[in-house]
Amino acid sequence: MFDKYIIDPTTLRNTGPAEAPTGFAFESKLGYYRGLGLSMVEELNVGIDGEVLPREAVRFDEGPGALTLDEMETAFDRRWAFGAPATLYVERAGGFPKGQHKLSLQQKLRISYMPFPSFNNDEKVIDFAG
User: Fold this and answer.
1) Which Pfam families has this protein been placed in (predicted)?
2) What is the pTM of this model?
Protein backbone atom coordinates (compact mmCIF):
# COMPACT_ATOMS: atom_id res chain seq x y z
CA MET A 1 0.00 0.00 0.00
CA PHE A 2 2.72 2.45 1.01
CA ASP A 3 5.57 0.48 -0.52
CA LYS A 4 7.00 3.37 -2.53
CA TYR A 5 7.74 5.22 0.74
CA ILE A 6 9.60 2.39 2.49
CA ILE A 7 13.13 3.50 1.44
CA ASP A 8 14.18 7.14 1.73
CA PRO A 9 17.10 7.29 -0.73
CA THR A 10 18.11 10.80 0.39
CA THR A 11 19.22 9.42 3.78
CA LEU A 12 21.65 6.77 2.46
CA ARG A 13 25.11 7.15 3.97
CA ASN A 14 28.13 5.03 4.78
CA THR A 15 29.04 4.35 8.40
CA GLY A 16 32.42 3.92 10.04
CA PRO A 17 35.63 5.61 8.98
CA ALA A 18 35.35 7.56 5.71
CA GLU A 19 38.42 5.84 4.27
CA ALA A 20 37.20 2.33 5.18
CA PRO A 21 33.41 2.19 5.76
CA THR A 22 32.15 -0.72 7.84
CA GLY A 23 28.56 -0.46 6.68
CA PHE A 24 25.79 1.85 5.60
CA ALA A 25 22.53 3.26 6.92
CA PHE A 26 19.28 4.68 5.55
CA GLU A 27 15.86 5.65 6.84
CA SER A 28 12.81 3.55 6.24
CA LYS A 29 9.08 3.88 6.87
CA LEU A 30 6.59 1.16 7.64
CA GLY A 31 4.74 -0.14 4.59
CA TYR A 32 1.62 -0.84 6.63
CA TYR A 33 -1.13 1.70 7.32
CA ARG A 34 -0.97 1.37 11.12
CA GLY A 35 1.86 1.27 13.60
CA LEU A 36 3.18 -2.08 14.80
CA GLY A 37 4.98 -3.40 17.83
CA LEU A 38 8.57 -4.25 16.94
CA SER A 39 7.95 -7.88 17.88
CA MET A 40 5.57 -8.06 14.89
CA VAL A 41 8.30 -7.14 12.40
CA GLU A 42 9.49 -10.60 11.37
CA GLU A 43 12.06 -9.74 8.70
CA LEU A 44 13.79 -6.73 7.17
CA ASN A 45 15.57 -8.07 4.10
CA VAL A 46 18.03 -5.51 2.73
CA GLY A 47 19.54 -6.10 -0.69
CA ILE A 48 22.03 -4.48 -3.04
CA ASP A 49 21.70 -5.25 -6.75
CA GLY A 50 19.58 -8.33 -6.01
CA GLU A 51 21.90 -9.79 -3.36
CA VAL A 52 20.10 -10.08 -0.02
CA LEU A 53 22.45 -9.23 2.84
CA PRO A 54 22.66 -11.46 5.95
CA ARG A 55 19.96 -11.02 8.60
CA GLU A 56 22.68 -10.73 11.26
CA ALA A 57 24.07 -7.63 9.53
CA VAL A 58 20.88 -5.57 9.98
CA ARG A 59 20.11 -3.30 12.96
CA PHE A 60 16.90 -1.32 13.45
CA ASP A 61 16.41 1.91 15.41
CA GLU A 62 13.15 3.82 15.69
CA GLY A 63 14.71 6.16 18.25
CA PRO A 64 15.63 4.59 21.62
CA GLY A 65 18.60 2.56 20.33
CA ALA A 66 19.50 0.00 17.71
CA LEU A 67 18.30 -3.60 17.96
CA THR A 68 19.15 -6.72 16.00
CA LEU A 69 16.24 -8.45 14.29
CA ASP A 70 16.47 -11.20 16.93
CA GLU A 71 16.23 -8.60 19.73
CA MET A 72 13.17 -7.08 18.04
CA GLU A 73 11.31 -10.37 18.55
CA THR A 74 11.06 -9.63 22.28
CA ALA A 75 10.87 -5.82 22.17
CA PHE A 76 7.26 -5.83 23.35
CA ASP A 77 7.45 -2.28 24.73
CA ARG A 78 8.57 -0.61 21.48
CA ARG A 79 6.52 0.41 18.44
CA TRP A 80 7.15 1.59 14.92
CA ALA A 81 4.58 4.30 14.30
CA PHE A 82 3.00 4.78 10.90
CA GLY A 83 4.79 7.56 8.99
CA ALA A 84 7.71 7.65 11.43
CA PRO A 85 11.16 7.04 9.95
CA ALA A 86 13.40 4.40 11.48
CA THR A 87 17.07 3.96 10.69
CA LEU A 88 18.36 0.68 9.32
CA TYR A 89 22.05 0.06 9.91
CA VAL A 90 23.71 -2.61 7.79
CA GLU A 91 27.16 -4.01 8.50
CA ARG A 92 28.97 -4.47 5.19
CA ALA A 93 32.70 -4.16 4.56
CA GLY A 94 33.24 -1.18 2.26
CA GLY A 95 29.78 0.23 2.96
CA PHE A 96 27.38 0.97 0.12
CA PRO A 97 29.22 0.85 -3.23
CA LYS A 98 29.82 4.03 -5.21
CA GLY A 99 28.01 4.44 -8.49
CA GLN A 100 24.53 3.43 -9.55
CA HIS A 101 23.12 0.51 -7.57
CA LYS A 102 19.75 -0.90 -6.63
CA LEU A 103 18.85 -0.80 -2.91
CA SER A 104 15.93 -2.99 -1.92
CA LEU A 105 14.04 -3.65 1.29
CA GLN A 106 11.40 -6.23 2.01
CA GLN A 107 9.43 -5.95 5.24
CA LYS A 108 7.75 -9.13 6.47
CA LEU A 109 5.13 -8.10 9.02
CA ARG A 110 2.85 -10.14 11.27
CA ILE A 111 -0.57 -8.47 11.29
CA SER A 112 -2.83 -9.64 14.12
CA TYR A 113 -5.98 -10.03 12.04
CA MET A 114 -4.38 -11.58 8.95
CA PRO A 115 -3.82 -15.36 8.68
CA PHE A 116 -0.66 -14.78 6.62
CA PRO A 117 2.25 -12.32 6.83
CA SER A 118 2.22 -9.02 4.98
CA PHE A 119 5.13 -8.48 2.60
CA ASN A 120 5.97 -4.89 1.71
CA ASN A 121 8.69 -4.20 -0.86
CA ASP A 122 10.54 -1.16 -2.10
CA GLU A 123 13.43 -0.85 -4.50
CA LYS A 124 15.31 2.31 -5.46
CA VAL A 125 18.07 2.82 -8.00
CA ILE A 126 20.53 5.18 -6.33
CA ASP A 127 23.49 7.00 -7.85
CA PHE A 128 25.70 7.01 -4.74
CA ALA A 129 28.74 9.26 -4.53
CA GLY A 130 29.90 7.83 -1.23
Assistant:
1) CGDB (PF19906)
2) 0.94
